[in-house]
Amino acid sequence: MTPSPKIGFISLGCPKALVDSERILTQLKIDGYQVSPSYEEADLVIVNTCGFIESAIDESLDSIGEALNENGKVIVTGCLGVKEKLIRERHPQVLSVTGPHAYEETVNAVYQHLPKPSHNPYIDLVPAQGIKLTPKHYAYLKISEGCNHRCRFCIIPSLRGDLVSRPISAVMQEAEGLVNAGVKELLVISQDTSAYGVDLKYQTEFWQGRPLKSQFNSLCATLGSLGVWVRLHYVYPYPHVDDVIPLMAEHKILPYLDIPFQHASPTILKSMKRPAQIDNTLARIQQWRDICPDITLRSTFIVGFPGETETDFQLLLDFLEEAQLDRVGCFQYSPVDGAAANALPNPVDDEIKEDRYHQFMQKQARISSKKLAQKIGRTVSVMIDGKEDEKYIGRSTADAPEIDGLVFVESTNELNPGDVINIKITHADDYDLWGTQSC
Ligand code: SF4
Q1: Main-chain dihedrals φ then ψ at residue 35, nearest 5 degrees
Q2: Would the pTM count as exceeding 0.85?
Q3: How confident is residue 123, by pLDDT bands cut at 50, 70 and 90?
Q4: 156 in ligand 1 pocket by Cβ < 6 Å?
Q5: What's the CA gap between 320 and 368, in Å, rounded?
Q6: Is there a contact between 438 and 423 (Cβ–Cβ < 8 Å)?
Q7: Is the CB of 192 under 6 A from ligand 1?
């Protein structure tokens, strides 16, 4: 029997790109290809690129170069694929270039350069949940592609197009398959999670014989019935987001909302083309906390957007103080090729951006450390991710993998990834917690 051809895979960029990688690998595995852990053993390498900011473009181009040096046969896909000319100028030897979510074209390019092995998909075993690049106990669930907004700093709509939602029956089937395969936490992702279904006009579909609307609230409630942790990412602050907070209070889905606010100055928000009623946002946050006191709010902000004055920045710091968000990410504005914001007047000096970034992060570190200190003595649910140096490492409901904090757990029990246990918190720093398993 001839050995199966082997594919090496490099997946760069955000969780959405990771899901694309998983889809491509799943199809190739179904076709009988093997996945290789090294350049030497691979017959061909696919590089799934990111093209969001300059540093990501550089990293993608370097990775393509490395794959060409180490292996020689390279197919490029992903967000940077829309800039084929740039890739080919630097690396003319690449075999094929496709753009984001071009699963079929990528797989076809593989067939062309590394012919399909003879294979019987009914005999060969492919896990029902497909190929996962995340650990076995959690998985990203992509519910839509693209975005209908046109935030001035963002090029995602030009890379990925307008919103295209997956019908709810397809999303639920995938979610159910993942849960049946042992996944204990579903991380719901998209470019704009709360817009889910708008493009489908909320069409009704059937899942397990039940009619369901392809709509954000209905999706959250149905995912919440699967009995695993469900965490919402990239939630645009539409008014109807308020409707899912009761589901969090009832523990149907995790009390966790990743909701990018981007700024707090109405002038800057308007200039970014984002919702600008910041007083309204503060009132909503208070309302969410009244309904669900345990809610964890994660948000991201941009400092140094063109035209940001000292007064605008102060408004942002004041907002941070008042909102007392739990988890916060901050980026210094950098012009992205093709972004509408590049044409705006009054760019902010790099030094000022840097200084504002540090002021912002210092303030948030104080808020975060105070909030975590309040957890000492409390008992929280923690999902175990693994073990290191005799200590288990996990995450509470307030911590998404990769981006939030960790909980270091002492326990005399034998624990496995995906186990959910109660931990009494004994210590905290700015971002992480320590605790012991309580009975
Ligand atoms: S909502 Fe998000 S993805 Fe859509 S344009 Fe704005 S920043 Fe980009």
Answers
A1: -100, 130
A2: no
A3: very low
A4: yes
A5: 11
A6: yes
A7: yes
Question: Which CA distances in Å does 108 have to 28, 102, 116, 187, 308?
Answer: 10, 10, 10, 29, 47
Q: Is the CB of 292 under 6 A from ligand 1?
A: no
How much distance in Å is there from the Cα of 264 to the middle of ligand 1? 17
Residue nearest to atom 2 of ligand 1 (CA): 191
Would the CA dihedral through 244, 246, 252, 257 be positive or negative?
positive
Q: Is 149 in the pocket of ligand 1 (CB under 6 A)?
A: yes
Q: Which tokens go with 186?
A: 């579903």
Q: Report long-range pairs for 344-353 (Cβ below 8 Å, ≥24 apart).
A: 344/152, 344/271, 344/306, 344/307, 345/306, 345/307, 346/306, 346/307, 347/306, 348/304, 348/305, 348/306, 348/307, 348/308, 352/304, 353/303, 353/304
Q: Does the CB atom of residue 421 touch ligand 1 within 6 A? A: no
* Among candidate residues 19, 7, 418, 37, the one with its CA nearest the CA of residue 228: 418
- Please give the number of the atom of ligand 1 that sits closest to the Cα of 191: 3
d(CA 150, CA 134): 31
Identify the residue whose C-alpha is closest to ligand 1 atom 8.
154
Find all residues with CB under 8 Å of 340, minimum gap 6, and list them: 150, 152
Check whether 119 has a pLDDT greater than 50. no
How far apart are the C-alpha atoms of 34 and 43, rounded to whole Å? 10
* Three-point CA angle 109, 113, 119, nearest 5°: 90
CB–CB of 74/68 below 8 Å? yes
Ligand 1 pocket, residue 266 CB under 6 Å: no
Q: What is the pLDDT of residues 19-65, one digit of tens each?
A: 888 888 877 876 778 888 888 889 999 999 988 777 888 899 999 99
Interval between CA 355 and ligand 1 midpoint (Å) = 26
Q: Is the CB–ligand 1 distance for residue 154 below 6 Å?
A: yes
Inter-residue long-range contacts of 213-222, CB under 8 Å, 24+ positions, other chains counted: 213/168, 214/165, 214/167, 214/168, 215/168, 216/240, 216/241, 216/244, 217/243, 217/244, 217/247, 218/168, 219/143, 219/168, 219/171, 219/188, 220/244, 220/247, 220/252, 220/253, 221/247, 221/252, 222/168, 222/172
Q: DSSP letters of 318-344? A: HHHHHH--SEEEEEE--PPTT-GGGG-
Record the tokens describing residue 415, joined without a space: 């624990």
